[in-house]
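dude i think i finally got it to work??
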Amino acid sequence: MQLRSDARHLSPVFALATAVALLAPADAHAADSAPALAIDLGGAQLDLVLVKAGRFRQGSPPTEAGRGDDEALRDVTLRRDFYLGKYPVTVGQFTRFAADTGYRTEAEVGASGGFGFDGQGLSQRKEFTWRTPGFPQTDMHPVTLVTFKDAVEFTRWLTRKTGRVFDLPTEAQWEHAYRAGTQTRFHGGNDDQSAAAIGWFKGNAGSGTRPVGQRQPNALGLYDMSGNAYEWCRDWYGPYAPGPAVDPEQTTPPAGDKPRRVLRGGSWLKEAKHLRAAARYRNDPGSRNADNGFRVIAALEASAPAAAAPSTPAAPLLAGTRRTSPSSSWSTAAIVAFVGGGLVLASALVGLVGLLVRGAARRRRVPGAPPGMTFRTQGDGFWLNAPPHLRGSTLHYRCLVKGAMRRASVPIEPNPRGQFVYTGGAPSAVEVEQLGAAAWSAGAPRGAAGAPRGAAGSYRSRDRISSSPDVAAVAPFRGYPSAY
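look at this
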């Protein structure tokens, strides 16, 4: 099998290219026909395990304990063998990458840092990065506080360094490798005691991650697939398509949903049910949390000389799929997906305006926002100050980031220092769309018409943050697990 190595096609998008492989009827089993792969990173070693192509049952039955609404059962066929990291990428391996390339993660570059452990939970501080997550770590701990883009840049470095195409696994590849032929809640059994034997989670981890490889592996010899740190997958989060699937991958965000990337495996901060084989999670691709890490996938054969130049997009790994270049900002990726990757920015903006106009026609008007709410942009987000009576209400807003409009919502948590809202880039404008019903009835002054007093733009700040009469759309399907 020959891999494409054209410089135009190497990227975070994983590519196995040419020959058409036969469908393998069997489930994955321990590899006995090919050795494990070990790659010297120069002071650190990356170990990978062969995962055979095959068919498996993705999702969970309705009776499974801890099941989420987004785990619909379907039969999946994967047509390509691949290598998968034996462990999550470690601090030591990521250190080699940073030293070799000078790369700085989004938490390091951003003005607000990442979400590290403050002794009680995750909070955002400038000093929290992958080097300092808020708990002690060694080179053998899984690297955390990395965004989707950070993980993709690591795979690009591996591709250039080895001449072998690396990427993040799809959600189906990840679950196929996790199960290794099993169909139980966890790869080690059905009860929560099984989870304790195979992974680190809220019940046994303590205050942080643990060195990789300390719990029982699955049948393929893969460690820490359950717990320790969540692992980024390539897919955008969305409902599974009905019916059997061949080499599935969600390459674009579902229409009307907040674009999020998939995370799998559970973490040291989560309960045992999140460590299940079918358990799904998702987050903004720019999220940088102390329980988010990643694991890499690799092609079977090297296709180009090591250190070949290129960090441009590659051909898709799986036949029949279409991919777009990942981005640290979901709005940019969503625009690229919307226009098919071939239209100019002006065309994309026209399309987005059309979507906003059509959405506004279905929404009621909100004359303004309560007085006392102020905003200030900084770095990759904005600071929100809100009066105490709005605590617990949901603020729906939209903002312009890097020329693209994005919608999001955040629960209001009044704080004397303000509440930082991460937007994935410096917002040039933020517009309030709606506050939850509680916000309008919890003591906010009202005018004669029943709306909060004050002109719509009365709280505009020097950073051009303004109000909007539109109301945010409701997501079209249930099943979102809670995110940070």
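The domain at 7-316 is CATH 3.90.1580.10 (paralog of FGE (formylglycine-generating enzyme)).
im so relieved honestly
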